[in-house]
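Re: export button greyed out
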Amino acid sequence: MSRRVGMEASFAIAEAVKLAEAEVVAAYPITPQTHIVERLSEMVADGEIDAEFICVESEHSAMSACVGSSAVGARTFTATAGQGLELMHEVLFVASSSRLPIVMAVANRALSGPLNVWGDQSDVMAARDCGWIQYFAENAQESFDLTLCAFKIAEDPQVLFPVMLNIDGFFVSHVVEPLYLLEKEELEGFIPPYQYPFPLDPRRPVTMGAFAPPVLCTETRKALEVALQGTRETILRVWKEFGDRFGRSYKPIETYRTEDADTILVGIGCYTETASVAIDTMRARGEKVVMVHLRLWRPFPFPEIRAALQGAQKVLVFDRCIILGGPGGPLCSEIKSALYGEEKKPKIFNFIGGLGGRDITPRQFEDMIARGREILDSKVTVEYETIGVRE
Amino acid sequence: MIEVRIHGRGGQGAVTSAEMVALAAISEGKYAQAFPSFGPERRGAPVLAFVRVSSDPIKLRCDIREPDVVVVLEPALITVANATSGVKKGGLIIVNTGKPVAQIKQEFSLTHRTAVVDATKIAREVLGLPITNTTMIGALVKATGIVALDSLVEPLNHRFGRLAAKNIQVCQRAYEETIVEE
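Workaround output, generated via the alternate export path:
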């Protein structure tokens, strides 16, 4: 039977990795790391999990070690955050283009500079084009469930892509809260044994990470894109199967209080939980506001976003990252591009906030929604506004 | 929902006490969150820890700026860390002090209802150390009933191992000795 416990989301992810019987964990134990690998290193040392813990000398090496271990057919996990993800950046592309089903948890944090170890989504957004499946968990329960799903999705023969599970640094990663853990027997058969189709094996030599001259590269990149887009069906199937078996279903986008929409607030990550408290307060006053949060980020959930937003009058998009020198926030940029070709499309405005660990209260979300409606009712003269910024 | 902010100094265990309360609440079937004020904290510097306990799922992912209850591990923090900032009308301040309620209220111009306990004395006598985090949990439980005292036994046992018995004892003593303003 599943057990209700109190636990940090970081530890919950470690529990899921243990249940999934990961065979290799490679990580670099320095700030910004998380309790995820700290707990896993204890589990390995105490013999709770039969895995190799490779303590490497940098995040670049951590992902390189993951590439190697996944290629020989070992179920592989790592975790990182902030600057660590950026140091991995080069190897992230190698992992996805080699179709290696590594699972990685990222506790999203700000990037330097200024030096800041607190949470925002600059790290994942700078890595959004690396060819990984990327999705977000907003609390400890989702972190646990979606880590289990990540192994099943990544290793599915129809997928064979690495999966990045994002949780917001601190406001998810460090919060002790209740969740239900699954027992080993309950999980039986959910994650099949990992069988990489072409493992590195001296007895049966294969070439991996091969050289591709101009005559081949376009086809290879196109094939990679088609394959990544093609993982959708499996992702949806695995989330549904998880729901059917364990009672908690996950979807590419989650919607909250959708009845009778006038204004839709769109976000990604755990601040949408805070925002939904604001939505409740505004609904109680009779305001027709709706919350839409993305769970799936890559492949981008185009059909679901179009279906959810095209009927609305006003859409406000909340980002926890600035694309420097660009159009504002990355989420808003992609929402706009998803809707640009639609005949009927809403007016859209972007807010940016919660950078470098600054929290946002429900009251601030209420003010933001009111301000956004006001802006969209008049003439929009700026790409975005920054919440609470002192200028 | 009850929201608690704990003021301590790095190394005094404020974060641990927040976790103990949350784990006790969760074991009672309630919903709870415990989290620190995040950052590269230093030993001795003022730190914060937060606890939310509710009968319904908690969806807030932000600090507690308007607490129902503030727990102060050391009176100087009332001034140094502005410990009473944002406390709700009708809120409660729980202070580790050997002084009576009226005196501490006057000394720090406290306008909220106040509770006092000499946690340092209890901790010194039982633990042999002036570490008051677990002691102050007893005061919080007495003053608010946020969880049952018994619910803390399991989390304290799990966290403190061979030192658990004494930490449970300080918690119980503080529960008995805390004076809550009417």
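The helical segments of chain B are 14-27, 76-80, 101-107, 119-127, 133-144, 153-160, 164-177. The button fix ships in the next patch.
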